[in-house]
Design a protein that fits this description.
The complex is a heterodimer of chains A (659) and B (309). By secondary structure, chain A is of the alpha+beta class. Chain A contains eleven helices and 32 strands. Classes of the chains: A alpha+beta (659), B mainly alpha (309). Chains A and B meet through strand 25, helix 6, strand 32 and helix 11 of A and helix 2, helix 3, helix 4, strand 1 and helix 5 of B.
Chain lengths: 659, 309
């Protein structure tokens, strides 16, 4: 067992030694190492260098650490204030994250009661700036929502500003108390997933610090740089982390210290558990080998191959379609059952999500692994602002998820394919969107959504459907080229929504503003319907009219109705009973709510369909997009048969036990 | 009488009286069809004129099915589910009313008349109502106690990192609960059989009789009941697998036939259990008669027919 007093003394000594060493070194710089990437030169404009040494105590689920952060001021102006995220302070009953989660729910929790085990904290014991002294007492928590109890952002004001191009070094001693996992980070039984666990400086973005409080429905944003992290844990722990492992040393006190190094990453996460079974594999990317570490729970070892297969298939698609994965490692963690740490992404480190008895035809592990790997591109390398533009990470990632999974598992079966029942990934995205279609726009701060359902439905679901629709309109190759250009051009930068949208316009050569204004910036909802499809004999007034197929002439009247406010050109297919199909296009810039198509033919209308090529995936009601003049009750009879059968069995089971 | 003979005796009774299973299956089907009408109307309204519904015909696209359920014009799911639930309850009530006639028929060596059937039903309505209420109370208590203990065990097992343990603890506990509820069911099945066959107006006496015989023949009866229940589960599971294998997705008629075959044979397994109870009751009554009947000694051999010599 670790004594916290002794640990503090130890860390103070280490801290003093580091400080002395640092002050003796006159010049500060960010290392230009490339040992963790398949590149001879750095890939990002490195702003930060984190050197962290930590010792974890599994019994108290806490750690003590020293952090030396070297920051390169590339903002072009002097900086005298520096905000830091202290994310673990979110797990306190009066913190904004907990309040919002209690109010709106979040991805894993509704949080209707408070359990003290869920308490987490990130306490700065000492905060010193090289050459400017100890500023611990001057630190101030700042809040943008007025909640004075929220301690997820702390700000340091320096006595002397750091000039443009200059460096500053922060030396921070801190103590973390991990929560039992409510979401993403913390412990469960003897498992730990340490995410967002160290004081992390905000991002200077568009002329100001961007360092938001931790909200119930927001994620993260940070600058690129180099990470050197040493983790000390008991010998029996199996550890995985971001970056590459550079050393693993046993200590005389029954612990071991593992050192990791990461290049061109903007966060660092790690996990420890005595139970992991680790498997190693390799993916050969277009620029070099990637070592895969797959850390499985003992009961799920039989799924290791399944995990490795989908991971490599996904990496292959991303490599070919969007660009190379430049890191030398990827760690895939199968987290502790019930830990709420499933399905999360950190640079070169992702968590999956499965159960020991996961059926083969239910592709939840595949979806989670694909999705989290996709984040390596959109969150990890492109690194958009997840606080303010969540759709640019989660949504673009959901779009590529649909594309990749469709190509691997089939477009109709990419979520479920069991006993004749099917479900596609796109449909699950659509469900998420359709329920909340008129609540919030995509382009909105993450914490301003109506609730978590709306946040999830819009940022994930709507974005995927909007981009799939766009792809169907522009062509798969054009969209793939746009995504490739976007990734290669903006990786290791922090692009804005307009950077993304303009890249698509550039690749397609089209002005897509009308679409973007409605789909991305607006809350317009699309619902086209076939309002009327009717054929009447031209000589309807004759008493002795005898209709004869192929001979009788009909006036056919077709009316398409735009029920809601999303305006888009739509194609219409009208099928006649002589086998003829007429295609029309309705594009009147929204001047009218309906359009009439009239024909006189020796044939009657059989069916009318709006968007016959099924390009549009954002129509709120897919059933009214078509009309069969002579209805067909087969589908209804089929599902009613299922319903009847289930009703019969339920009645029998009730009777079985009760009488 | 051994377990095999109870089982085969029960099967033989069901085989001789197939009409009861057929009638109850028809009743089950008719009520479920009526109960499904609300669902059917909504489904037809949304699907019939849409080309989109084709994805439900040539496959079972859960996305399209989910969209249908989510449409405002479909209304709340409970609006469609409530009639089905009410008619499931009606099936339960009608079973309770008609069951005495079935038991009378099962116990009889000849095909009973309609009059005998309805008489048995009429005479036993009040007795079966009381027995059913009592059985519901006992089943609720047993299920409640087992669920509570099961949840507690599940939580305790959840403290370990062994992911399989909570699952198998829950599964084991469910099996234990199933056995306990089956014992209760045997008890009440015997009580119901006694109430009908001995024309016993005092329900408590039938219950006392049943608890006595259940206790003394537990292994034999429980074994038979569990075996039949497993057959029932196999009928449903095997039927669904067969459905998936041989019925083309677009064949509504094929799906309907196999669904009804599953429903029929599943229902038959419960009738088999009841027939086992009757078979047991009859053999037990015979043993009681043999046990208590006065010894009769033939004074002299009956004169043989000289022609047969």
């Amino acid at each position: 067992m670790f004594s916290s007093k002794a640990l503090n003394c130890l860390f103070m000594a280490v801290f003093a030694a580091i400080a002395a060493a640092s002050s003796s070194a006159q010049t500060l710089e960010i290392p230009s190492t490339t040992s963790a990437i398949n590149s001879a030169t750095p890939l990002s404009q490195r702003v930060v260098h984190y050197e962290i040494e930590t010792k974890y105590d599994p019994k108290s689920h806490s750690l003590d650490a020293t952090e030396v952060l070297t920051y390169h001021n590339l903002t072009g102006q002097p900086l005298d204030t520096f905000p830091f995220h202290l994310y673990l302070n979110a797990f306190q009953p009066t913190a904004t994250w907990i309040k919002e989660t209690n109010r709106d729910g979040t991805r894993d929790e509704m949080l209707e009661s408070w359990d003290p085990k869920n308490y987490g904290s990130e306490e700065i014991k000492r905060f010193e700036v090289t050459g400017q002294g100890d500023l611990t007492s001057q630190l101030q928590f700042i809040q943008e929502d007025g909640n004075k109890d929220d301690k997820t952002v702390v700000q340091a004001r320096l006595p002397h500003a750091i000039p443009p191009g200059g460096y500053v070094q922060f030396k921070i001693v801190f103590h973390d108390q991990f929560p039992e996992t409510l979401e993403r980070t913390g412990w469960k039984r003897d498992f730990l997933l340490a995410g967002q666990w160290f004081p992390k400086v905000g991002v200077w973005w568009h002329g100001a610090w961007n360092c938001h409080q931790f909200h119930g429905a927001t994620e993260f944003f940070a600058d690129f740089g180099v990470y050197d992290v040493k983790i000390t844990v008991p010998q029996n722990e199996v550890v995985g982390a971001s970056g590459i492992e550079v050393s693993n040393l046993s200590n005389p006190d029954g612990t071991k210290t593992i050192a990791y190094h990461g290049d061109d990453i903007h966060d660092f996460a790690w996990t420890a558990s005595p139970h992991y079974k680790v498997f190693e594999d390799t993916f050969q990317s277009s620029i070099g080998p990637v070592k895969l570490n797959i850390m499985m729970q003992p009961a799920r070892v039989w799924q290791e191959e399944r995990h490795a297969r989908i991971l490599k298939q996904t990496m292959d698609r991303f490599d070919r379609w969007y660009g190379p994965y430049p890191y030398k490692t990827l760690t895939l963690v199968d987290p502790e059952p019930g830990s709420a740490a499933e399905g999360m992404e950190y640079p070169t480190f992702i968590t999956g999500g499965t159960m020991w008895n996961m059926p083969k035809g239910l592709y939840i592990p595949e979806i989670v692994i694909e999705h989290e790997f996709g984040h390596q591109y959109w969150y990890g390398m492109v690194a958009t602002n997840e606080f303010e533009d969540a759709w640019m990470d989660e949504g673009i990632n959901s779009y590529t998820e649909v594309k990749v999974l469709d190509s691997i598992l089939g477009p109709r079966t990419s979520t479920l394919n069991m006993y004749g029942a099917t479900l596609s990934d796109l449909q699950t995205q659509y469900f998420g969107y359709a329920r909340v279609a008129d609540l919030d726009p995509m382009a909105q701060n993450g914490w301003e959504y109506f609730d978590y359902d709306s946040y999830g439905g819009i940022t994930y679901g709507k974005t995927a459907c909007v981009l799939i629709t766009l792809e169907n309109l522009l062509g798969e190759e054009t969209m793939r080229q746009a995504m490739h250009t976007y990734f290669m051009r903006y990786r290791f930068t922090h692009p804005t929504k307009e950077d993304f949208l303009k890249t698509i316009e550039e690749a397609s050569g089209k002005n897509l503003r009308r679409y973007f204004n409605q789909a991305v910036y607006g809350t317009q909802v699309m619902d086209y319907e076939v309002l009327k499809a009717k054929s009447t004999p031209v000589e309807w007034y004759k008493d002795d009219l005898k209709e004869k197929k192929g001979e009788t002439e009909y006036n056919t009247d077709v009316v398409i109705h735009r029920k809601t406010d999303f305006v888009m050109p739509v194609d219409v297919a009208i099928v006649f009973d002589n086998g003829e199909t007429v295609r029309e296009r309705w594009d009147d810039n929204g001047n009218n709510r309906w359009v009439r198509f009239a024909y006189t033919k020796k044939a009657k209308v059989v069916s009318v369909e709006v968007d016959p090529d099924h390009k549009i995936q954002i129509d709120r009601n897919n059933f009214n997009n078509s009309k069969l003049v002579e209805g067909d009750g087969k589908a209804a009879r089929k599902v009613t048969n299922y319903w009847t059968f289930v009703s019969q069995l339920l009645a029998q089971i009730l009777t079985w036990w009760m009488v | 009488m051994n377990k095999k003979s109870i089982l085969s005796g029960g099967a033989s009774i069901v085989g001789r009286n197939k009409r009861y299973v057929v009638w109850f299956w028809l009743m089950n089907l008719a009520l479920a069809t009526i109960g499904s009408e609300a669902f059917s109307l909504r489904a037809h309204h949304i699907l019939d004129q849409s080309l989109y519904s084709d994805r439900l015909v040539h496959g079972m696209d859960l996305g399209v099915f989910g969209e249908m359920l989510g449409r405002p014009e479909f209304g709340p799911l409970r609006g469609a589910a409530l009639p089905s639930m009410m008619l499931a309850l009606l099936f339960f009530v009608l079973t309770m009313i008609f069951l005495p006639g079935v038991l009378q028929g099962y116990a009889s060596d000849h095909r009973i008349s309609r009059g005998e059937f309805w008489r048995a039903c009429g005479v036993n309505v009040w007795r079966f109502l009381r027995l059913t209420i009592l059985s519901m109370i006992v089943i609720a208590i047993v299920a409640g106690v087992f669920s509570a203990i099961g949840n507690a065990l599940g939580k305790a097992a959840d403290a370990t990192s062994n992911e399989r343990l909570p699952f198998f603890v829950q599964l084991g506990w469910l099996a234990a609960m199933f056995l306990a509820m089956t014992i209760v069911r045997i008890w009440f099945d015997l009580a119901e059989t006694d109430a009908v066959l001995s024309d016993q107006p005092a329900v408590r006496k039938s219950l006392r009789y049943a608890v006595h015989h259940t206790r003394h023949n537990l292994v034999r009866l429980l074994g038979s009941y569990v075996l039949i229940a497993l057959v029932g589960a196999a009928v449903v599971a095997g039927g669904v697998v067969l459905w998936n294998l041989i019925v083309p997705p677009a064949s509504v008629l094929g799906a309907y036939i196999i669904a009804q075959a599953i429903a029929f044979f599943f229902l038959a397994t419960r009738f088999w259990q009841r027939a086992v109870a009757v078979s047991f009751y009859k053999s037990n009554a015979l043993e009681d008669i043999v046990e208590f009947a006065p010894m009769i000694v033939a004074a002299a051999p009956v004169a043989a027919d000289p022609a047969q010599l």
